[in-house]
Amino acid sequence: MLIIGALVLPFFIYALVMYFKFSRSDKSKDEKEQVLAYSSKHALGVFPIGWLILHLYHNFIASIPYDTYRDAMWVLVLLLFTVQGFAINYYKKRMQQSDASQE
């Protein structure tokens, strides 16, 4: 599980930088809220679905040691923020394209 966390970490850092750049940008408040709402909608399911899969694996397939469970939770948190950061980047570009096409 530690290897997966190490592989996700660079994507998490990139997504975190995207989030901070977007939150500090000079876009209108309405546009920021709309992009954040869309990105949060996509990122919201990552943690509960991952936790459910982990819980079902623990109950029906094999017992998971505490260390592995703890590491898996951290990986899920990293994935949650990574998905939100990439979704912000996607919707930000999509909003820019729609603004350019309206002009």
Automatic annotation (TrEMBL):
- Which key words are in the record? Membrane, Transmembrane, Transmembrane helix
Q: Which domain of life is it from?
A: Bacteria
The residue ranges crossing the membrane are 6-22, 43-66, 72-91
Q: From the Swiss-Prot or TrEMBL record, give the protein name.
A: DUF3784 domain-containing protein
